[in-house]
Amino acid sequence: MAAKMLEECIGKQVAIYMDGGLAGSVATILAVEDNFIKIEDKKTIRYINADMIQQIQVKK
Q1: Which of 20, 34, 46, 50 could serve as a FRET partner for 10 with CA atoms 20 to 30 Å apart?
Q2: CA-CA-CA-CA torsion sign (16, 22, 24, 26)
Q3: pLDDT value at position 1?
Q4: What's residue 21's pLDDT?
């Protein structure tokens, strides 16, 4: 997913769908840098490679 598009989601709660174990995870995007995004859910902060993301849904 393009970093420019991800930057629009900073500070918003989103559902992230990607290959592997993180499917439909709800988190807040904290930062986007190069090809990684920093997200925070209820328990942890994670760094995700943006190339692995298939879809992001912004929660209202």
Answers
A1: 20
A2: negative
A3: 66
A4: 64
Q: List own/partner pairs for 45-51 with CB under 8 A and 24 or more apart.
A: 46/22, 48/16, 48/18, 48/22, 50/1, 50/2, 50/3, 50/6, 51/1
- Cα separation of 52 and 36, whole Å? 10
Structural contact between residues 54 and 14, judged by C-beta atoms closer than 8 angstroms: no
What helix, strand, coil percent values describe the chain, rounded to 5?
Answer: 15, 55, 30
Which pLDDT does position 54 carry in this prediction? 87
Instruction: Locate all alpha helices (DSSP H) within 1-60, ordered by sequence.
Output: 3-7
CA dist list (Å): 57 to 9, 14, 30: 10, 5, 15
